[in-house]
């Protein structure tokens, strides 16, 4: 199918893009990679009357970083650029695991970090990674700017805290801490499909090799990405053990409320989420051991 | 609504074009209906099948997920530009020799995906080839002959590389 008619504006500056958005509000959409928006427009699930193309705003693209242990990713940064950025993948190794699961190479060549997060598909990998990493999202409008924690950003199915006049302009990610390991795993029907369940795990040890912090973000098992870090209580202050990992996996299974879909029942999704939680935690831990 | 029209200038397979387009025209439709380059096939129009894959400044993208107006100022390559006077591109030749197509509908997308992939990855394993092909759906072949063709094309391209 084809998109319904709309007015197209190629923004020449961020200020112009934000002023147009302030003027048109929900009737206008920003066009970044277009890998979710254009299909939605082709299906006429989205019918913006104004499309503001931000692809020319090079100041929104790219990765700068490691100032104060933070990496700043411009919202227009394409997955393709991150996949080929060794320094970034080293600073944020969760991305190295997660990026290959995001759709297919052709989609990753266009798709952007900001577009993905703003689209807020709960089965998408990046929102779960952002939640697990404790990303901070920087929103800007013609009248001001603010920062939101990834955990507060996703408020429902395809719904975020971004207001009608705002744009997600960049994302701050903490560089992986010392004595930490990370892992992302998912189960999908086919490579590149949306996950039936996916888990992003980060394990940090103290100097005595006890778990000081465990972060868990899940995708595909609710209306938003799930921050399941509180389910990891059994590991905190303890030496990493399979027994504690199983307690955490069971706590995650109790915490989530998958809806089930045409490919998997809710019970199956819950089962997969538990298995992936165990495996991702063990893999994350083993990576610390290997790095040490 | 008054149709909003935009003038665009782009190059496709080295030929410069200038056209006026309605912004809602998809790049895939622009190539097929405005430039009469119907080698780019349209399968699903939501980015799943890969049949419409073209190269945008040398990088494979779905032409059904871009607007024609976004191609202004860019260099595009489509399947029509692959063969030269000297003959088929090595990837095309390998598809021919290894019976890598049956109905042929997915073939242009596969050729564009894989010519770019093999340029960046000249010595892929079979598993890597399958991964690279994951964004292109073929409903005839079962992929085995396409994978064989790609491994053969990679070898042929390595042998002729300067």
What's the gist of this structure?
The complex is a heterodimer of chains A (292) and B (162). With 292 residues, chain A is an alpha+beta fold.
Largest sheet of chain A: 5 strands, antiparallel
User: In oligomeric terms, what are we looking at?
Assistant: heterodimer
Strand content of chain B: 15-25%
Largest sheet of chain B: 5 strands, mixed
Radius of gyration of chain B: 16 Å
SS element count, helices of chain B: 5
* Terminal-residue CA separation of chain B: 56 Å
- The order of strands across the largest sheet of chain A is 4-5-10-6-7
H and E string of chain A:
EHEHEEEHHHHHHEEHEEEEEEEHH
Question: Which protein chains make the most extensive interface, counting residues with beta carbons within 8 Å of the other chain's beta carbons?
Answer: A-B, 33 and 31 residues
Q: Averaged pLDDT of chain A, please?
A: 95
Name of the CATH first level of the largest domain in chain B:
Alpha Beta
Provide the succession of SSEs of chain B: EEHEEEHHHH
Lateral arrangement of strands in the main beta sheet of chain B: 2-1-5-3-4
The helix fraction of chain B, in percent, is: 25-40%
Distance between the termini of chain A: 54 Å
User: What is the name of the CATH topology of the largest domain in chain A?
Assistant: Uridine Diphospho-n-acetylenolpyruvylglucosamine Reductase, domain 3
Rg calculated over all Cα atoms of chain A: 19 Å
Count of spatially separate domains of chain A:
3
Query: From the helix content, strand content and strand pairing of chain A, which structural class follows?
Result: alpha+beta
Describe the structure.
The complex is a heterodimer of chains A (292) and B (162). With 292 residues, chain A is an alpha+beta fold. Chain A has helices spanning 14-24, 37-42, 79-83, 86-91, 93-98, 105-108, 113-119, 125-133, 150-153, 242-255, 266-291, and strands at 7-10, 28-31, 50-53, 63-67, 70-74, 136-141, 144-149, 154-156, 159-160, 167-174, 180-188, 195-205, 211-219, 226-227. Chain A has a five-stranded antiparallel β-sheet with strand order 4-5-10-6-7. In chain A, a hairpin with a 5-residue loop joins strand 12 and strand 13 (211-219). In chain A, helix 10 packs antiparallel against helix 11. The model of chain A has no long low-confidence stretch (mean pLDDT 95). Chain B is α+β, with helices and mostly antiparallel strands. Chain B folds into two domains: 6-80, Roll (Ubiquitin-like (UB roll)), CATH 3.10.20.30; 90-160, DNA polymerase, domain 1. Chain B has five helices and five strands, in the order E-E-H-E-E-E-H-H-H-H. Chain B has helices spanning 27-34, 90-97, 107-120, 126-132, 144-160; strands at 6-12, 15-21, 53-56, 59-62, 75-77. In chain B, helix 2 (90-97) packs across helix 5. The longest helix of chain B has 17 residues, at 144-160. Chain B is globular and about 55 Å long. The model of chain B has no long low-confidence stretch (mean pLDDT 96). Chains A and B meet through strand 1, helix 2 and helix 6 of A and strand 4 of B.
């Amino acid at each position: 199918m084809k998109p319904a008619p709309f007015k197209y504006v190629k923004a020449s500056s961020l200020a112009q893009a934000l002023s147009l958005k302030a003027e048109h509000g929900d009737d206008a959409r920003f066009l970044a990679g277009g890998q979710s928006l254009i299909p939605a427009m082709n299906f006429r699930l989205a019918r913006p009357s104004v499309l503001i193309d931000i692809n020319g705003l090079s100041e929104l693209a790219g990765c700068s970083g490691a100032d104060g242990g933070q990496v700043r990713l411009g919202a227009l940064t394409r997955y393709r650029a991150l996949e080929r950025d060794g320094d970034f993948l080293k600073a944020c190794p969760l991305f190295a695991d997660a990026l290959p699961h995001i759709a297919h190479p052709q989609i990753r060549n266009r798709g952007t970090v900001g577009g993905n997060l703003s689209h807020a598909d709960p089965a998408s990998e990046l929102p779960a990674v952002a939640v697990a990493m404790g990303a901070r999202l920087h929103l800007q409008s013609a009248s001001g700017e603010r920062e939101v924690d990834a955990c507060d950003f996703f408020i429902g199915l395809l719904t975020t805290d971004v207001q009608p006049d705002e744009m997600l302009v960049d994302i701050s990610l903490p560089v992986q801490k010392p004595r930490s390991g990370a892992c992302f795993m998912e189960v999908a029907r086919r490579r590149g499909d949306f996950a039936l369940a996916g888990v992003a795990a980060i394990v940090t040890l103290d100097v005595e090799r006890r778990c000081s912090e465990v972060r868990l973000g899940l995708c595909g098992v609710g209306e938003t990405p799930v921050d399941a870090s509180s389910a990891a209580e059994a590991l905190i202050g303890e030496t990493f053990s399979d027994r504690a990992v199983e307690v955490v996996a069971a706590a995650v299974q109790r915490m989530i409320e998958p809806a089930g879909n045409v490919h998997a029942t809710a019970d199956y999704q819950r089962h997969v989420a538990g298995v992936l939680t165990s495996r991702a935690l063990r893999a994350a831990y083993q990576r610390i051991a290997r790095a040490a | 609504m008054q149709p909003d029209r935009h003038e665009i200038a782009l190059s496709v397979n080295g030929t410069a074009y200038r056209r006026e387009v309605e912004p809602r025209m998809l790049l895939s439709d622009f190539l097929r209906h405005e430039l009469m380059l119907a080698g780019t096939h349209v399968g699903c129009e939501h980015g799943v099948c890969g049949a419409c894959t073209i190269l945008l400044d040398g990088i494979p993208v779905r032409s059904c997920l871009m607007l024609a107006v976004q191609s202004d100022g860019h260099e595009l390559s489509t399947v029509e530009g692959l063969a030269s006077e000297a003959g088929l591109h090595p990837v095309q030749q390998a598809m021919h020799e290894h019976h890598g197509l049956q109905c042929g509908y997915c073939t242009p997308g596969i050729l564009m995906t894989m010519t770019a992939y093999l340029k960046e990855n000249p010595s892929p394993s079979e598993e890597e080839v399958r991964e690279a092909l994951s964004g292109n759906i073929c409903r005839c072949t079962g992929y085995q002959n396409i994978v064989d063709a790609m491994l053969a094309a990679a070898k042929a391209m390595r042998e002729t590389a300067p």
